[in-house]
Design a protein that fits this description.
Elements lengths: L11 H12 L4 H12 L8 E5 L6 H14 L3 E6 L7 H8 L3 E2 L8 E2 L6 E6 L8 H8 L8 E6 L5 H5 L7 E5 L5 H10 L7 H8 L3 H12 L11 H11 L6 H12 L5 H8 L5 H8 L4 E4 L2 E4 L1 H14 L1 H21 L5
Parallel strand pairs: 1-6, 1-7, 2-5, 5-6
Antiparallel strand pairs: 3-4, 8-9
Helix pairs in contact: 2-3, 9-10, 10-14, 11-12, 11-13, 11-14, 11-15, 14-15
Bound molecules: adenosine-5'-triphosphate and magnesium ion.
Length: 342
């Protein structure tokens, strides 16, 4: 089907992509890094750019922009989206075969048509975790040395990438953070939001892009936004982006503790859960994408903390009080016994 000007009619997907691209702000460092690799004459300064960060931080949005930049530069862009893809080599190769020629004998993988440099964009890599070794040792080595792969996922690269000295110089790792205050304001200007509300919205969301987008939407629909409290529909909308599933009651308690306490360590968890062995829940907590390792324990990203805290207060205030009191007891006891910086 063609449009009035004879070009293929745009799909709704094209319109949405264009809309998102117009709203895009910031990420100058990541884009600069990618452009430098794309502009390199022969071997790029890195072969794999691994971008990681919690849900809603802007990984997919960034990949979309990088894909457009690569296509404008004449590269062949191949995409793999871990969402809904069966994590098996066969299904990944099947997706790649739409754009690339894949010899059956493990030979080099190239663009099907002579389409310049190959750029491979892999999104939702956390969903492809079972294939991590296969990507590193089997798939990527089959790409041309000039190819650039961008992997975006919720987690850092696994230790195997770091432990392999051959990957050392070929891998670049970027932790995607909240938008800066300037970029957050630019986002709100582009969204056409009343400037009198900008400071409040940036403060409430800390510049978390999905938080900004959802809160902008809430305000645009005419809701009043308190300067200190996240609207509950925003909390509800954000929760699934931070936590997919919580295995059981113990894990939920651990999550709640992490939201309430400044920093969470195993001793605190033992006290709150009333158990001697909490290693399994601590390890689970540590591996959540929005939880950061600090010298004295684990702490959630700023917006995730506020969202979990608001969710708990609203859903189960008795549980909130229990976790709060146990955490306070533990902190007060620590204050009495610790000395110096601790
Ligand atoms: N740089 C940006 N400029 C403007 N808006 C952005 C930017 N990054 C993200 N957003 C907004 O935030 C929303 C969430 O971003 P995105 O889907 O890219 O997050 P994600 O990191 O891929 O999350 P997930 O891990 O859940 O897939 C986007 O739909 C968009 O509205
Ligand atoms: Mg995404």
């Amino acid at each position: 089907m063609t449009g009035v000007d004879g070009r293929p009619a745009a799909t709704l997907g094209d319109v949405l992509t264009e809309h998102r691209r117009r709203r895009f702000v910031g990420r100058a460092t990541e884009i600069g890094l990618f452009r430098a690799a794309l502009d390199s004459a022969v071997a790029p300064p890195f072969s794999v750019l691994h971008v990681y960060g919690p849900g809603g931080i802007g990984k997919t949005s960034l990949l979309e922009v990088l894909g457009a930049i690569a296509a404008d530069a004449g590269a062949t862009v191949a995409r793999i989206d871990g969402h809904g893809l069966d994590p098996s080599p066969a299904s990944v190769l099947e997706v790649l075969a739409e754009t690339l020629a894949i010899p059956a004998d493990d030979g080099p993988i190239c663009p099907s048509e002579d389409g310049g440099r190959l750029v491979l964009l892999v999104d939702a890599y956390e969903q492809l975790a079972p294939l991590d070794d296969w990507f590193r040792t089997r798939l990527l080595p089959r790409l041309h040395a000039s190819a650039i792969t961008v992997i975006a996922g919720r987690d850092q690269p696994t230790r195997a990438w770091m432990a392999d000295p051959a990957w050392g110089g070929l891998l670049r790792v970027v932790s995607l953070r909240n938008l800066s205050p300037d970029d957050s304001h630019a986002f709100l200007r582009k969204a056409g939001l009343d400037p009198a509300l900008h400071d409040r919205i940036v403060r409430l969301t800390y510049g978390h892009p999905l938080g900004l987008a959802l809160l902008t939407d809430v305000v645009a629909r005419g809701a009043e936004v308190d300067s200190h409290v996240l609207p509950l529909d925003l909390v509800e909308a954000l929760i699934p982006h931070f936590v997919d599933t919580v295995p059981d009651h113990r894990h939920r308690r651990a999550l709640e503790t992490c939201a309430v306490a400044r920093c969470t360590n195993e001793a605190l968890l033992r006290h709150v859960l009333g158990e001697n062995d909490v290693r399994d829940v601590f390890t689970w907590l540590r591996e959540l994408s929005f939880v950061e390792l600090r010298p004295d324990g684990l702490a959630p990203h700023d917006l995730a903390r506020d969202v979990l805290d608001a969710d708990l207060r609203w859903r189960d205030f008795d549980s909130y009080k229990h976790v709060f009191h146990r955490t306070r007891e533990h902190s007060l006891a620590a204050l009495r016994t610790n000395a110096g910086r601790a």
